[in-house]
Amino acid sequence: MPYPLHVTFRRLAVLMCYALLGAGLLIHTAHAQADDELMQRVHQFLYEQTQALGEEVVIDVRPPSPHLPPCIRPEPFLPNAGQPPLGRVSVGVRCGEAQQQIRYLQAQIDVIGGYWVAQHDIERGTLITQDMLARQSGSLSALSSQALIDEADILGKIAQRPIRSGSAFQANALQTPALVKRGQRVTVIAQGSSFRVAREGEALEDGGLGDRVRVRFESREILTARVTEQGILVVDF
Predict the structure, then answer these.
(1) Which domains, from first to last, does the chain contain?
(2) 180 with 227: CB under 8 angstroms?
């Protein structure tokens, strides 16, 4: 006996509802899996960037907005690549096959490790030496963005202002001592795999180790060279 027409339509409506619910569940599951993959990829990326900074690293990545589409083939990057990712940071992520979509996630990174502080008060104009440094351990993320962690970035620098005992060394409080003075006669060395040429010229500006300084020669030619030691510059090829 055939079912009444209204019963058939009701069953069809119920089946369509189940189908829509199932499709929605599949979409939600796929979206959730993509978000999990995105967060895992960002977490791993941040760990790789910070594991060498200290003895303990704690990373908390905030979930992406549920209103955004899934991020396919996520490739994280740091917008401020020149600064160590400590404290609250923003992480860029390139999405899609062509990596043309970019979104940003927020993360909190806490690193416990060692850093250098002044062993005693240091006066302005003082050359920083090993006996002025003391090792201290603590939260690196609590330090300012200007704090210097590596000893090599501190030794041999000049204090631009007084530094109190126990204070972390700040990049903006130190300067590289000038190895070349403006107006000084300097030697510029250019060398390659099969040649080495040295010329004398006049430095047009002050420069410390690693700084790039303009030099003028007797021919009035001007070029830029890198300071390597007192009165010596090298042309990079």
Answers:
(1) 5-110 (no CATH), 112-175 (3.90.1210.10), 178-235 (2.30.30.760)
(2) yes
Write out the two tokens for 142.
């609590």
Cβ atoms of 157 and 179 within 8 Å: the answer is no
Quote the tokens at residue 76.
Answer: 């994280």
**Amino acid at position 23, single letter:** A
- Give a three-class secondary structure readout of 189-228: EEECCCCEEEEEEEECCCEECCCEEEEECCCCCEEEEEEE
166's CB contacts (< 8 A; 6+ apart) are: 117, 118, 134, 136
3-state secondary structure of 13: helix
List, in order, residues 6 or more apart from 137 with CB less than 8 Å away.
Answer: 55, 112, 113, 114, 115
Instruction: Give the Cα separation of 105 and 92 in Å (integer).
Output: 7
Let me know: does 169 contact 140? Beta carbons within 8 Å.
no
Place of tokens 């790789």: 48
59 near 109, Cβ under 8 Å? Answer: yes
Predicted TM-score (pTM) of the model is: 0.56
What is the Cα–Cα distance from 212 to 202, expressed in whole angstroms?
14
Q: Are 182 and 203 in contact (CB under 8 A)?
A: yes
- Coil/strand/helix, residue 94: strand
Instruction: Single out the residue of 128, 179, 125 nearest to residue 152, CA to CA.
Output: 128
Of 27-31, 142-146, 162-166, 177-181, the poorest mean pLDDT is in 27-31
Tokens 């126990």: give the residue. 166
CA-to-CA distance for 77 and 42, rounded, in angstroms? 9
Q: Which residue has the higher pLDDT, 210 or 202?
A: 202
